[in-house]
Design brief:
Layout lengths: L3 E10 L10 H11 L6 E2 L6 E5 L6 H21 L3 E3 L16 H10 L9 E7 L3 H11 L3 H8 L4 E2 L2 E2 L5 H6 L14 H13 L13 E3 L5 E8 L4 H23 L9 H14 L4 E3 L6 E3 H18 L3 H14 L2 H12 L2 H13 L1
Antiparallel strand pairs: 1-3, 1-4, 1-5, 2-3, 5-9, 6-7, 8-9, 10-11
């Protein structure tokens, strides 16, 4: 059974105002001093962010429990220095991000200018693969389905105090970086690695770690890393995204082993599907991965469940995934919940305060 790990980036905010706080170094120091799971927390590009990474898990219930546990630990450490954590993919309130200290981050700030001031927070899912060849075969096969995961996770409707009219504005801001987005079919691990080496050789990116494809081979682990999701408001949604990601990797691996050709959709069409998912989330239409034509979001989500159904059934995750998707379609993803909170309270500060509470649920 394939193992799965999740990396989540959380927003540090002032409990009283909801405004982002540049206190990641202090929170990390508290976590290190505490000595309990301190090794799961890491700094990120901006000092208003705190990242954690779960351990690889083969049982999705255990992964879900670890996500909850890490969120609670992050909240505890943050609370000890007077701030809170919110699972928000962008800050609803205006923010002037602070680039963290370190040679790498300072190089990025110098190289990319104003782009490095974009404070966005994602959820990355690592799924184990047997080899680089299998991993690249998976990446080639899964591309059209990734926007569906993005729509399910969408949790960033507000930017600098305004409603963007997008469900996932984080994903649109993220596209400003030079190495992001969907990829063409590679066909082999050798071609994948050659492409990455050519990208690094341009000098536009610093190293292989800055190849930010929607799905890529991990540098550190024998995994495929899916990077399309917003950080999810609820831990249960993050666990659902991880469950669907494993099903998608397993299904794609089987297609690759069977010699099935990838969809052949151009990067241009894949980018349009990603844009549609970012704009609509689950409230309107998405592009169906097979036809690249508009259909209701519920229909496309059902298509994803059908596509990965056999793989999910074999790991005992099908019913959990079906129930999770049905709940998301009924209740709404993070973007819908944020907008409903704004409509009810009329205050982005109240939106953040409520989302702090949702983060712990």
């Amino acid at each position: 059974m394939r193992t799965v790990g999740v990396e989540e980036e959380l927003l540090l905010v002032a409990p009283e105002t909801g405004e982002p706080r540049a206190l990641s170094a202090a929170v990390l120091a508290r976590a290190a001093h505490d000595g309990t799971n301190g090794d799961v927390f890491e700094k990120e590009l901006h000092s208003q962010m705190l990242e954690f990474a779960t351990h690889p898990q083969s049982k999705m219930a255990e992964l879900a429990a670890e996500i909850v546990r890490c969120r609670k630990e992050a909240a505890r450490h943050a609370g000890e220095i007077g701030c809170a954590v919110a699972a928000l993919a962008t800050s609803p309130l205006p923010v002037s991000p602070t680039v963290a200290m370190g040679r790498r981050y300072q190089w990025m700030a110098e190289q990319y200018g104003i782009t490095s001031n974009d404070l966005v927070l994602g959820c990355h899912v690592h799924v184990s693969v047997e080899s680089d060849d299998e991993g690249v075969g998976v990446i080639d096969q899964m591309q059209p389905w990734l926007p569906v995961l993005a729509a399910l996770s969408a949790n960033s409707p507000f930017w600098q105090g305004e409603d963007t009219r997008y469900s996932s504005y984080r994903s649109r801001v993220w596209q400003r970086w030079p190495s992001t987005g969907p990829t063409e079919v590679f066909g082999s691990a050798e071609r994948y690695h050659r492409r990455v080496a050519d990208m690094v050789a341009t000098g536009v990116i610093l190293d292989e770690a800055m190849v930010y494809f929607d799905a890529r081979l991990s540098r550190q682990y024998p995994t495929v890393e899916l990077r399309v999701a917003d950080v999810c408001l609820h831990a249960s949604t993050a666990a659902l995204i991880a469950t669907l990601a494993r099903g998608l990797v397993e299904t794609s691996a089987r297609e690759w082993r069977a010699g099935r050709k990838p969809s052949g959709h151009s990067v241009s069409l894949l980018r349009l599907a990603a844009w549609r998912a970012a704009r609509s989330g689950l409230t309107e239409e998405l592009l169906h991965p097979a036809t690249m034509r508009r259909l209701p979001a519920e229909t496309v989500v059902r298509a994803l469940l059908d596509h990965v159904g056999d793989a999910l059934a074999e790991t005992g995750d099908l019913e959990r995934a079906q129930e999770g998707c049905a709940e998301l379609l009924r209740r709404g993803n993070g973007a819908r919940i944020q907008r409903e909170l704004m409509a009810r309270t009329g205050s982005l500060r109240e939106v953040v305060a409520e989302c702090v509470r949702h983060t712990q649920e």
